[in-house]
Amino acid sequence: MKKIIKKIHFMGISGSGVSGVASLASKMGYKVTGCDLQKEGHSKDHLKDIDLLIVTPAVFYQSLNNPELIEGRKRGIVITWQEFLGKYLMKDKFVIAIAGTHGKSTTTAMVGKLLEDNGFDPIVILGANIPEWKANYRFGKGKYFVVEADEFNDNFLNYYPKIAIINNIEFDHPDYFKDVKQLRESFDKFINNLTGDKVLITQKDSFNKKFNLKVLGEHNQKNANMVFCLGKKLNISEENIINSLENFKGIKRRLELIGEENRIKVYDDYAHHPTAITATLEALKNANSKTKIWAIVEPHGFNRTNALFKLYNSCFEKADKVIIGPIFKARDNKTFGITPKIVAKETNHKDAIGVNSIDEIIGIIKKDIKPGDIILVMGAGNSNLWAKEILESLKGNISFKDLTTMKVGGKIKYYKEVNNKEELVKQIKFAKKNSLPIFIIGGGSDILVSDNDFNGLVIKYVGDSIKVDGSKIIAEAGVIWDKLVETSVSKNLQGLECLSGIPGTVGASPIQNIGAYGQELKDILFKLTAYDIKNDKFIVFKKDDCRFGYRESIFKKKDNSQKFIITNVTLKLQKYVDTDLKLQNIRNEILRVRSEKLENPDIIPNAGSFFKNPIVNLSKKNELVKMYKDIKFYSFENSFKIPAGYLIEKAGWKGKRLGNVKVSDKHALILTNPEGKGNFNDIKKLADEITNDVYNKFKIKLEPEVQYINI
């Protein structure tokens, strides 16, 4: 009489694979117990009244002296968890198995979601956690059982699927397979395990569709095509298949964004085979083509690294910086003389280094990382822990120098970018709860920040939507100013074209009441929305409420500085009707003139126009005209504006250097930090000397247009 299995015990129950199987078994009616070496340990006493002892293959073959395993062998009750899956949990189920060297977990999750979305209520188990399920399995009462079928140790030969997907076959697991021939023989046996209609889906069956996936990479397009084929086999409509695939959000440890600090994103990925590393880097780089990507890699096992060594030569082409960390020891008896430095050299990457500890990795990152960079940590051993340590190390690693166009300023305790009003309010509450001062930053131009550390929260509003409604444009504060001008010109709306090329963001433009060549923001502002930090509410300011003046506004006044956060502006423009002179031509000419006269802050650090153009009365104007025949004036209300750059140049300062800082060779109105070595005091000293000299020579006092911050 066949024994009925009721009580089962798992050794190593805390392992990711085993824990999922144990949970499924419990839900399917088995009485489950378990132990783990790291917690209560192993003992033969655990096996009292137990019908089956379920272990991992590693325990089954390697833990020969384990007393619990010895007792189980004596009683003939030991099987691997894969055997238990195939023999017991899959019994009477319609099994769909997903195999292949790469992409098994993601494809299995896609299949599970497809069946779940279409009411099949499947059981699913795989080797990675699904955020929506908060586990690596899903229990369902339907007939389908979806399993990730791993080839290592011939584990997948325990399954007898009716449908199998094989994504790809490439040599791996050299600690089990001696060569690719043996690996392929194993896959052939797996294919022979097919039952029923024996449906096999491979890449040759692909429809080569392009899906609008939420997960990155060409490899995921291939995975999705396999699932599309499966959906067709199960008579699911194409619309439903595509909808499910395009709403798939991914799985843990597959290009998983674990966090962001100071505009530096840290991703964790399971990639450890060179082919997977290549695919992962390509996916990330294609989505972030202009971003510096750091590849931090933990090679998995000395045996595997040795067997796949030559493949490291070409897998880092999409990385800008490569750090090979300590090699994870996985079922290895020898090292083959392989070290991180040897692997780094084999990559043939121009900027690759091998190190022996996570501390060394963090040291290199903290020294050279820049805001906006991306860190991708890859591996199958401890690398996920590295990623968390790296993320933690980035806290407090940003300064105003990183955020300003002048490239000066002290360290910042907290820095957050917000995308919308809700995120903004959340950060304001955080600052108030922790009694932190708040500073709002835009594009980082028009300010000069001291070298003092800022023991508070710096917020940057980065929401950047633009909406055109007839002759009105509504733009969020994070929009790059020149992008807004470009949009207005493309819509044939007049009023911004002369403001082309001005650095900074939309949110900062009302503060300065920016202007150039006869146009000012005040002329076209309809209204703006700002958050009142003190009173915790959003306020709408009409044009008159802003109290605009020459490079002034209510927001720049000392009593109101940094008390409001502008979130969006509405501009009222006019349809352009001149058919002879195109708006685009005007914009192009303004951009040409600015490029010839002014310094590009991306190339030569500067804050833009450093001084305001001074305003004088008629008497002073006439006095200067007698002295300087070439001087130019511009009418301004009842007075006259003099170009500050003219006065500075006449005083002999154009191109003059003072230590690490310099007056621009192009335009005397611009103070520069050419090598990025200058500090706040250097620039302030230069500005003060210019101010004093101009006053002594012309009896005109220059006022800074830039704001001095954190002094």
Automatic annotation (TrEMBL):
<comment type="function">
    <text>Cell wall formation.</text>
</comment>
<dbReference type="GO" id="GO:0051301">
    <property type="term" value="P:cell division"/>
</dbReference>
<dbReference type="InterPro" id="IPR016166">
    <property type="entry name" value="FAD-bd_PCMH"/>
</dbReference>
<dbReference type="GO" id="GO:0016881">
    <property type="term" value="F:acid-amino acid ligase activity"/>
</dbReference>
<comment type="pathway">
    <text>Cell wall biogenesis; peptidoglycan biosynthesis.</text>
</comment>
<dbReference type="GO" id="GO:0005524">
    <property type="term" value="F:ATP binding"/>
</dbReference>
<keyword id="KW-0436">Ligase</keyword>
<keyword id="KW-0560">Oxidoreductase</keyword>
<dbReference type="InterPro" id="IPR036635">
    <property type="entry name" value="MurB_C_sf"/>
</dbReference>
<feature type="domain" description="FAD-binding PCMH-type">
    <location>
        <begin position="407"/>
        <end position="576"/>
    </location>
</feature>
<feature type="active site" description="Proton donor">
    <location>
        <position position="609"/>
    </location>
</feature>
<dbReference type="InterPro" id="IPR016167">
    <property type="entry name" value="FAD-bd_PCMH_sub1"/>
</dbReference>
<dbReference type="InterPro" id="IPR050061">
    <property type="entry name" value="MurCDEF_pg_biosynth"/>
</dbReference>
<keyword id="KW-0285">Flavoprotein</keyword>
<dbReference type="GO" id="GO:0008762">
    <property type="term" value="F:UDP-N-acetylmuramate dehydrogenase activity"/>
</dbReference>
<dbReference type="InterPro" id="IPR003170">
    <property type="entry name" value="MurB"/>
</dbReference>
<keyword id="KW-0132">Cell division</keyword>
<keyword id="KW-0573">Peptidoglycan synthesis</keyword>
<keyword id="KW-0131">Cell cycle</keyword>
<dbReference type="Pfam" id="PF01225">
    <property type="entry name" value="Mur_ligase"/>
</dbReference>
<keyword id="KW-0521">NADP</keyword>
<dbReference type="GO" id="GO:0071555">
    <property type="term" value="P:cell wall organization"/>
</dbReference>
<dbReference type="Pfam" id="PF08245">
    <property type="entry name" value="Mur_ligase_M"/>
</dbReference>
<dbReference type="GO" id="GO:0009252">
    <property type="term" value="P:peptidoglycan biosynthetic process"/>
</dbReference>
<keyword id="KW-0961">Cell wall biogenesis/degradation</keyword>
<feature type="active site">
    <location>
        <position position="705"/>
    </location>
</feature>
<keyword id="KW-0133">Cell shape</keyword>
<dbReference type="InterPro" id="IPR004101">
    <property type="entry name" value="Mur_ligase_C"/>
</dbReference>
<dbReference type="InterPro" id="IPR011601">
    <property type="entry name" value="MurB_C"/>
</dbReference>
<dbReference type="GO" id="GO:0005737">
    <property type="term" value="C:cytoplasm"/>
</dbReference>
<dbReference type="InterPro" id="IPR016169">
    <property type="entry name" value="FAD-bd_PCMH_sub2"/>
</dbReference>
<dbReference type="InterPro" id="IPR013221">
    <property type="entry name" value="Mur_ligase_cen"/>
</dbReference>
<dbReference type="InterPro" id="IPR036565">
    <property type="entry name" value="Mur-like_cat_sf"/>
</dbReference>
<dbReference type="InterPro" id="IPR036615">
    <property type="entry name" value="Mur_ligase_C_dom_sf"/>
</dbReference>
<dbReference type="InterPro" id="IPR036318">
    <property type="entry name" value="FAD-bd_PCMH-like_sf"/>
</dbReference>
<dbReference type="Pfam" id="PF02875">
    <property type="entry name" value="Mur_ligase_C"/>
</dbReference>
<dbReference type="Pfam" id="PF02873">
    <property type="entry name" value="MurB_C"/>
</dbReference>
<keyword id="KW-0067">ATP-binding</keyword>
<feature type="active site">
    <location>
        <position position="551"/>
    </location>
</feature>
<keyword id="KW-0963">Cytoplasm</keyword>
<comment type="similarity">
    <text>Belongs to the MurB family.</text>
</comment>
<dbReference type="Pfam" id="PF01565">
    <property type="entry name" value="FAD_binding_4"/>
</dbReference>
